[in-house]
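Severity: low
Component: inverse-folding endpoint
Summary: output formatting inconsistent between runs
Steps to reproduce: submit the following C-alpha cells with default settings.
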C-alpha cells in the first residue's frame, strides 16, 4: 500500500538535493560551453586544429574533419553544437540497440 503522507515527507526531505543537483548540472554545462567556446576561438578551422594535434606528443589519433568547421560556424551563432547521426530513433531502447551494434 502506498502511504501518500510518507511519500510527501520523503520528497520534502530531499527537496534541497533536487535543487543542488540541478545547480551542479548547470555549472558543469556552463563550464562545457565555455570550453567549447574557447576551442572554437583558439582553433577556428579544422586545418588549424589538425596542425596543433599533429604537433602533440600524445593523443587518441582522432583528427578533425569538415564537420568541425560546420560546428564552429554553428557555435558562432550561440547555438549548442549538434552533430546529427543521420537517423532518428523511436525510443531510447532503439537508440541503445543501434549503439551496441555500431560499436562492435
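Observed output (run 2 of 3):
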Amino acid at each position: 500500500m502506498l502511504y501518500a503522507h510518507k511519500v510527501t515527507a520523503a520528497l520534502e526531505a530531499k527537496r534541497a538535493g533536487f535543487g543542488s543537483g540541478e545547480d551542479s548540472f548547470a555549472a558543469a554545462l556552463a563550464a562545457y560551453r565555455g570550453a567549447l567556446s574557447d576551442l572554437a576561438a583558439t582553433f577556428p578551422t579544422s586545418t588549424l586544429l589538425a596542425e596543433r594535434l599533429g604537433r602533440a606528443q600524445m593523443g587518441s589519433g582522432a583528427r578533425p574533419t569538415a564537420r568541425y568547421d560546420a560546428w564552429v560556424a554553428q557555435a558562432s551563432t550561440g547555438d549548442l553544437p549538434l552533430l546529427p547521426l543521420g537517423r532518428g530513433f523511436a525510443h531510447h531502447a532503439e537508440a541503445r540497440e543501434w549503439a551496441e551494434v555500431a560499436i562492435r
